């Protein structure tokens, strides 16, 4: 025996089948039921259905335009209408090319094209440019681009598309100076208030930038990011070609769609003059913040086609039929695509 310590006695196990008896002095305490988990609001499901609700609201508000537009389509020459539909489909391809050209990283092609189709529907439901920009911003951030670079890519796309549209308009006006009767586009005396408004807006923006340091710092930081992104894109020939090729092709295809509808309905205006009218109207209406330009685009296009020499009745029919093809026919499939992309977490 070593150490003088006795071995510990083994712990006795209770006999099989015995039941422990509770002490009569112990009071049982009823534990409260665990709190039920609160049901989370199905935000993603709501976002999937929201585009369809907005489509229904917009369609009801413009039901008279829809009815009249479809009536004009019934009297048109269908080969030209198919050409207009084909040009409209190619605008989404051009937009996808331009979006890809605005970033250095390669974006998934199929999802990028589907996003442009969905962005077109969003653009007709929200003020001009905001819907498409929001959808594409979300798409690029999901693809892994930082928010600052995604925003810079959006700005570069908008700048390139605006330059392409204005450059095409300027080139066509130089080639066909008599394409539009500019005196009919603006009422007499309307130019002076327009110029004053532009000058006041520029002065207000400049004043805000000079007086509010936080705004000035944010704008300068964003401009640095945007300029760096633009330099990076233009160091790669494929990206620069996609950016500027898409920027010029997008408005050209839109104008081609209007020309095809004009030919389908027998508008007595030369095709290139119709293209000038379209570009002039869309440049003018870009400053009007209506959802997808609905209402303002129709009015501007009718005025521009009349200024190009077309009869008012036929010009109205052409514009309504054109908007049916480019806005109302794709808007429901586009909204469904938008909802599907939200559900699949592509955006």
From TrEMBL:
Pfam families: LPG_synthase_TM (PF03706)
Membrane topology, from the record: Multi-pass membrane protein
Protein's cellular compartments: Cell membrane
Key words, A-Z: Cell membrane, Membrane, Transmembrane, Transmembrane helix
Keyword match Aminoacyl-tRNA synthetase: no
TM region(s), chain numbering: 41-60, 80-98, 190-212, 241-260, 272-288, 300-321, 327-344
Protein name as it appears in the record: Integral membrane protein
Any one GO CC term of the record: plasma membrane
